[in-house]
Design goal:
The complex is a heterodimer of chains A (114) and B (117).
Chain A lengths: L4 E3 L2 E4 L5 E6 L6 E8 L3 E9 L2 E5 L6 E5 L5 E5 L8 E8 L9 E2 L3 E5 L1
Parallel strand pairs in A: 2-11
Antiparallel strand pairs in A: 1-3, 3-8, 4-5, 4-9, 5-6, 7-8, 9-10, 9-11
Chain B lengths: L4 E3 L2 E5 L4 E6 L6 E7 L5 E8 L4 E4 L2 E6 L4 E6 L8 E8 L12 E3 L3 E6 L1
Parallel strand pairs in B: 2-11
Antiparallel strand pairs in B: 1-3, 3-8, 4-5, 4-9, 6-7, 7-8, 9-10, 9-11
The chains are: A mainly beta (114), B mainly beta (117).
Chain lengths: 114, 117
């Protein structure tokens, strides 16, 4: 069974640009969540989607957005990139996203903003 | 904000020794999960322990949970060089009135474990 797949693995963008990251959850999983990891702030929750609906949102500006498709695949978008957005973006999936479900992570997308 | 604090921040041991990492958290939880992260890679799930459980084992891993002290520990026995990684605890808290159901992990800052051959 394939794990959580994230693309691209590495990318470099310029300040002011926008970026879209993609995530394919484990087959059968319907909950997809996104996390940002930086040396200064650690791992922080961005948002969670279930059945194409955003169920939870972390404390990030509106420049960070996401969506989920009917096949549970998810994308997150960051507009008007800032240097501080440089981070490892991790996608995670779980069966239904309820408490007690094991949450599995992908390898992440390394974003560098220059 | 970080819910959990992990102790120690860094741990260096010799192969074959046991490694113990501790995690403390602030609010009541539904469950707690431990993850491993190799440098620059994603998170690998190790163990999930529910709030009504006190101890769980998986291979060389042993996790304890003390909800009265709001703390958990991860013990790796007979460590190997391949265990070198960062270890994180993540809590899943009960839903608040203003949040819908769903999953939302809050991570500690992690313990960097180095196992020397």
């Amino acid at each position: 069974k394939a794990g959580v797949t994230q693309t691209p693995r590495y990318l470099i963008k310029t300040r002011g640009q926008q970026v879209t990251l993609s995530c394919s959850p484990i087959s059968g999983h319907r909950s997809v969540s996104w996390y940002q990891q930086t040396p200064g702030q650690g791992l922080q929750f961005l948002f969670e989607y279930f059945s194409e609906t955003q169920r939870n949102k972390g404390n990030f500006p509106g420049r960070f957005s996401g969506r989920q498709f009917s096949n549970s695949r998810s994308e997150m978008n960051v507009s008007t990139l800032e240097l501080g957005d440089s981070a490892l973006y991790l996608c995670a999936s779980s069966l239904r996203g309820y408490s007690g479900n094991t949450i599995y992570f992908g390898e992440g997308s390394w974003l560098t903003v220059v | 904000s970080q819910q959990g604090e992990e102790d120690p921040q860094a741990l260096s041991i010799q192969e074959g020794e046991n490694a113990t990492m501790n995690c403390s958290y602030k609010t009541s939880i539904n469950n707690l999960q431990w993850y491993r992260q190799n440098s620059g890679r994603g998170l690998v799930h190790l163990i999930l322990i529910r709030s009504n459980e006190r101890e769980k084992h998986s291979g060389r891993l042993r996790v304890t949970l003390d909800t009265s002290k709001k703390s958990s520990s991860l013990l790796i026995t007979a460590s190997r060089a391949a265990d070198t990684a960062s270890y994180f605890c993540a809590t899943d808290a009960p839903f608040s009135l203003w949040e819908t159901s769903g999953s939302r992990l809050t991570f500690g800052e992690g313990t960097q474990l180095t196992v020397n051959p």
